[in-house]
Structures are given as C-alpha cells and as structure tokens.
Amino acid sequence: xxxxxxxxxxxxxxxxxxxxxxxxxxxxxxxxxxxxxxxxxxxxxxxxxxxxxxxxx
Amino acid sequence: xxxxxxxxxxxxxxxxxxxxxxxxxxxxxxxxxxxxxxxxxxxxxxxxxxxxxxxxxxxxxxxxxxxxxxxxxxxxxxxxxxxxxxxxxxxxxxxxxxxxxxxxxxxxxxxxxxxxxxxxxxxxxxxxxxxxxxxxxxxxxxxxxxxxxxxxxxxxxxxxxxxxxxxxxxxxxxxxxxxxxxxxxxxxxxxxxxxxxxxxxxxxxxxxxxxxxxxxxxxxxxxxxxxxxxxxxxxxxxxxxxxxxxxxxxxxxxxxxxxxxxxxxxxxxxxxxxxxxxxxxxxxxxxxxxxxxxxxxxxxxxxxxxxxxxxxxxxxxxxxxxxxxxxxxxxxxxxxxxxxxxxx
Lengths: 57, 344
Known about the structure:
By secondary structure, chain A is mainly β. In chain A, 0% of the residues lie in helices and 37% in strands. Chain B folds into two domains: 123 residues, NAD(P)-binding Rossmann-like Domain (Rossmann fold, 3-Layer(aba) Sandwich), CATH 3.40.50.720; 164 residues, Dihydrodipicolinate Reductase, domain 2. Helix content of chain B is 26%, strand content 23%. Chain B has nine helices and 13 strands. In chain B, strand 4, helix 2 and strand 5 form a beta-alpha-beta unit.
C-alpha cells in the first residue's frame, strides 16, 4: 500500500513512490508545488526551497 | 450513425463545427447549408478541411430531414424560422443567441429586439453541460452559449453557488474571431492586429447569460477588451467575498465543483511558466481552464479567479457538440478529444 500525504498548499493527495527517500523532491499533481519529503514514517512533506522567478521587471 | 446537418456553414462557428463533426465517429454530415456559398466546396470557406471532406455547401432552402440540425446563423436569424427548422429535425442545437435567454423581456432589455418566437424560449435548454447536464440528457432543443459568458460562468460559479460571492469585477480579453467571418472596419488588419481596445466597458449582452446561470445574488461588473489574438477569451475576475478564503479552501471549493468535469481543468500552478490559464494553449480544444489565487488580508476578502477557453470551441461549437452527445445519449466527450498544440 503506497503511503500518501496531503499537499500543504492545495490539499491534494500526494502519493509516495515505493522507493522514495527522505529529502527527495516530489511534485503535487494538482498545484505543481515541489515538496520535500521530510519523513517516511510517518509520511511528511514540506514546501521545497524555491528560487523565485522575476515576473515583474 | 447520426445524420447531422447545419445552417450557416461558411462562418467561423460553422467551420469549427464541421471540423469537429468530421472527427466524430458517430456522426455523418448530411448537409452543410450556406446561402452565400451554395454549390461550392466546404474547403473554399474552411481551407483546413481540404482533403478531409468533399462536401459542398447546399442552399438553406434545400435542407432535408435529418437527426440533428445545428443552426449557426448570425444572431436574430434562427428564431424567425424555428418552425421550419423544427419540421426538419427532432433535435436542434442553435448556436446563435436566439434561444439563450429565458424571456422576450430579456431580449428587449439586452438585445433591443422583439423576439419573434417567444413561445419557443422555454423549450430550449441552456447549452452549457457543466450546469445543465441532466436537463440536456434527452432534450430536443439546446441553445448556444456566449463565449464571454461561458468563461465568466465557469470562473465564478463555485464562488457564486456557495453563496460566498459579494461582488465580482470581471474583465474579459478576447480574440478577433469573436466578431465572425464578415469583415468590418474594426477587423481591418491595421486596425485590429495590434489592438488592445476596450470595446464594451458596460452593458455587454453576455451579462444576461451570467445572470441566467448564476442568479442575481451578487454584484457583477463586466467589461470586454479586444486583444491581439485570433482565438481565445480570457477572464480575470476580482472577486470580493463575504468571508475570507485561503488558497487551500479555494482548491477545495473548485475541486469539489469541477473534479469530475471532462472539460474544466484547474490550473493554478506554483512552478513553471504556465501557472494560470492561457487561451493560446487552448486553441482548438474544448477545455476551459480555471485558476485562482487568494489575497490574504486584502480589503473585501479578495480572491482572483482567471479562466480561458477557445471562443469557437468551448465558447461555441464544442459546447454545442457536447450538448448533442448528451441529447442523443452518446459519450459526452465523443469527438472532442483534441488536446491542443504546444508550442504554437
């Protein structure tokens, strides 16, 4: 049974791949945010550090 | 095999419907009528269909009985002949504005027009499957939808129907094909090609369809601006709510409204360059993409909702075909699977 977590940004269900490792970066299937795997047991993720793009200059 | 015919076949909406019908596995095109191009090959008006069909336009007076008749006439032309059209086909989808509103009074108000067949208005189901799906199943008559109305309805519906929406300020940016195939001074290339031209800041007719679908329980401010696109309508809606909503709540609300919908996609990405709906990516498709962002702490509990679609497909011919599929009991998405192009 694959482990799942809730995306902290949009609430979507994010499924851990079978071979996932702590520190790996996953993408939310709905909002696309990159999530860092903080813990495998219990499954926990947090927003991965992101380089902001310059949209306004 | 369903035998379908259409009137107004040489216009842009007629051409788009022909393209879609030719790709539909359950439909055979019986006749494509055009008074201005009678006897000419369909590809003389729609060059993308060269080699796809050897169909020639027939005169509207020579239309024969068929299973489904699509009316792609300019606004105001279908209503006066609806009895004749109804004698030719049990099922009719009218893509013009003639049967979208619920009363003759609404046509007086929004179109300045005395409807010639008001007794027919209640027989038509509004042709937006996302909100009238059950009524369309088995219906005999479906109306068209306004493209700007549709992009706005799909953007606002989850907020309006939840009772959270106090006021919406909607600006829709539109491509030139919305004006149809007949050239005008405003569509002349030097005048239109680079235009960012507000052409209807108040009183746009499509507001009547937004009210029909979403009701009167919120303030609506609606403007439309021509931009340098051929296809596309893109709405930016500043929505002021009765109570604050966080981004996660917006996801929950919109996911709940559109999760199973085959042609509405939620696009509110946190990464990449295509973060919100873009009309160019939807050209030729039946999708309406909807995105949103919360603005925590803003005056009036503002959230911004954006939506985009191809005005000729989801805003016209695609929705009409989706309606036909429902009306005759076919899979709703039949003939509508084109995913678009990237890059353009």
